[in-house]
Specification:
Largest sheet: 3 strands, antiparallel
Shape: rod-shaped
Keywords: Coiled coil
Strand order of the largest sheet: 1-3-2
Structural class: mainly alpha
InterPro entries: SPC24-like
Order of helices and strands: HHHEEE
Strand content: 5-15%
Distance between the termini: 115 Å
Helix content: 55-70%
Radius of gyration: 44 Å
């Protein structure tokens, strides 16, 4: 239950405070500062929300670009296939060139030896079998590599 005497006492105190012009001005000034502060906080909050939306849009755009780039990039198996094809083309071109040089230098008494690694991951080793000598003649024991046969 409300204590009526206390309520009357508070209202009397309030009336006494409001009688003084300085107190009313101070109260009005505090209220104005409160409104100014609230306005600045609202403006700052709106700016933060705007920046967050802007960054979210930039992140989404970046995600879309990343997904598009991932679609355009060849996967590991496809890249390996491309490398092997290009390596075989390059090998054939080099072998043809060295065969041509070997024929020209044969008259001078030079022997051109070229090797291919035994590592099957290199892409040249045992590519189709007809570029290398067979048997012991096709294997260099010191370098553990296959020797190209330019005569075939």
């Amino acid at each position: 239950m409300i204590d009526v005497e206390k309520l009357i006492s508070y209202s009397d105190d309030l009336v006494e405070v409001l009688k003084d012009k300085r107190d009313i001005n101070n109260l009005a000034q505090c209220f104005q500062h409160f409104n100014d502060l609230r306005s600045h906080c609202d403006a700052d909050s709106n700016e933060v929300h705007r920046l967050l939306r802007e960054y979210e849009e930039k992140i989404e755009a970046c995600k879309k670009k990343t997904e598009q780039a991932n679609l355009e990039v060849a996967d590991g198996a496809e890249m390996e296939s491309i490398c092997r094809r290009n390596t075989k083309k390059s090998l054939k071109k080099n072998v043809d060139l060295k065969r041509s040089l070997a024929k020209r230098r044969k008259n001078l008494g030079f022997q051109i030896l070229s090797h291919a690694s035994n590592n099957v991951l290199d892409g040249l080793n045992m590519s189709d079998g007809h570029y290398f000598y067979t048997g012991l003649r096709g294997h260099h024991s010191v370098w553990d590599s296959h020797l190209f046969n330019y005569g075939s």
